[in-house]
């Protein structure tokens, strides 16, 4: 019996092989091929020509790319800060025992997260259209503004709208993550605090928040990786005035697949990868420092 | 909450009833404020979808001039103009085909590899598993240019292969299924299957897969949603209108119908409504899935 089960162990290897073969073909080879192309000059028609580091030196002086890094970071910060605060408040409210209709609220808050980002981008670009959009009509209808606001004519308003759409789409997801974190806090802690006469506010600030800190940090870190890759919805909302809402991946897409400068696009892809890597390492280091302090 | 109440109440028992009343009023005011806040946020979540449905049923001239609050009668007209130019139902069928076949492939091979990592011991297993986890860190668009060029070399541009086949390598799926095999597949069952003379693959099909069904449903829902919303890869790989999935068509609708708002809104409605129906059926499973995933992370 024993002998036969040892003989079977190779099957485990066979079972994981399809993953590696597929990843090799559709994942790893393209990544290495992209690196090779980033040292070439290739427009998609003629043969690639070796140009060394030319694409990368061009990248360092490319004001559009540098601007797109700034835009992406600004949009990410504008969306993540209010998003996490709102998600945290809602999670703490929905974790209270007296709230009715918990499932309904969770479902409604989470729903925007699964709607196709492209569709949301188109929907919001129509709603915020300054002449025909319903947002201006609504604001004028309730008397908040007298004239329609040209949202996409101001760099900061345009960024705020993109950030707002991202926030609107992701706060429900983060709320669910925080609720899961809240539910893993042992009840005895709350009971002990209540016996000691702590108010609800004290409990929230002194017990819940510190215990939730790891979950908050984790969400923050993972949001950097996603936030730096913003693409679908911002693409539909447009580049904004003076390219103020052009994100890094949008620039990659437009360079490679609109202007057919594939090799330069490959260099941009690697630059984005390096930027994401740096930010991930910084945040991991930051969270480790936090742990040591505690 | 209850315990807190009783403490407050016993603490106040000696005082007169007036203080108790103010506290009660304060409490119900706070409750009201909390509910008001929840409803306000829920309203913000749903309003764009309501506006989308209402607006899609009005003529362009009305959309441009008025704030529309109730449904109109122009839906069919808008719809006709949309399908004259964009084969949106074809896109819908394409999306279903891509999504279903990708999800099936992804589930089967995730379960197979997860099982292979969970229940067998062979040389290099841990290193291979770490490699799988490592691939999860790679941003999706890193290799996109090479992917495009490579698919060109394979003559796979404008076909579904580059969109469906990569679903076999779903690193998160393998991670998830390995956890599930660790916790819900007893090794004794596998041994009994072996004693009965089943081959290893037959054991997987007959004994392991049925036991994994609940976890496969959870993973399946998330793969399904992810693939349904997939945009960048199909956009660069597929040139033919007839082959494109729904998100690519919606993006096309935006560039082609620059002033035909009614038709654009109809396209958006057609894209959102199936998701809404899907979500209202499986929302409990989705929400518990997100929560379970969050706890593991």
UniProtKB/TrEMBL annotation, chain A:
Q: Which residues form the ABC transmembrane type-1 domain?
A: 69-283
Q: How does it sit in the membrane?
A: Multi-pass membrane protein
Keywords on record: Cell membrane, Membrane, Transmembrane, Transmembrane helix, Transport
Question: GO CC: one term?
Answer: plasma membrane
* InterPro entries per the UniProt record, alphabetical: ABC_transporter_permease, MetI-like, MetI-like_sf
Please list every transmembrane segment annotated in the UniProt record, as residue ranges.
12-36, 73-95, 107-128, 156-180, 211-231, 262-284
The entry's localization annotation reads: Cell membrane
Query: Is Isomerase one of the keywords UniProt gives this record?
Result: no
Establish whether keyword Transport is in the entry: yes
SUPFAM superfamilies, sorted: MetI-like
Q: Which GO terms describe its biological process?
A: transmembrane transport
Sequence similarity: Belongs to the binding-protein-dependent transport system permease family.
Q: What is this protein called?
A: Binding-protein-dependent transport system inner membrane protein
UniProtKB/TrEMBL annotation, chain B:
Sequence intervals crossing the membrane: 29-50, 92-115, 127-148, 160-177, 207-225, 262-282
Cellular localisation: Cell membrane
Task: Name the UniProt key words of this record, in alphabetical order.
Answer: Cell membrane, Membrane, Transmembrane, Transmembrane helix, Transport
Membrane topology qualifier: Multi-pass membrane protein
Note the superkingdom of the native organism.
Bacteria
- GO cellular component, as recorded: plasma membrane
Name the Pfam families for this protein: BPD_transp_1
User: Which GO BP terms, alphabetically?
Assistant: transmembrane transport
Q: Which family does it belong to?
A: Belongs to the binding-protein-dependent transport system permease family.
Entry-linked PANTHER family = ABC TRANSPORTER PERMEASE PROTEIN MG189-RELATED-RELATED, SN-GLYCEROL-3-PHOSPHATE TRANSPORT SYSTEM PERMEASE PROTEIN UGPE
The protein, known as: Binding-protein-dependent transport system inner membrane protein
Q: Which species is this record about?
A: Neobacillus vireti LMG 21834
Q: Which classification does the entry list for the species?
A: Bacteria, Bacillati, Bacillota, Bacilli, Bacillales
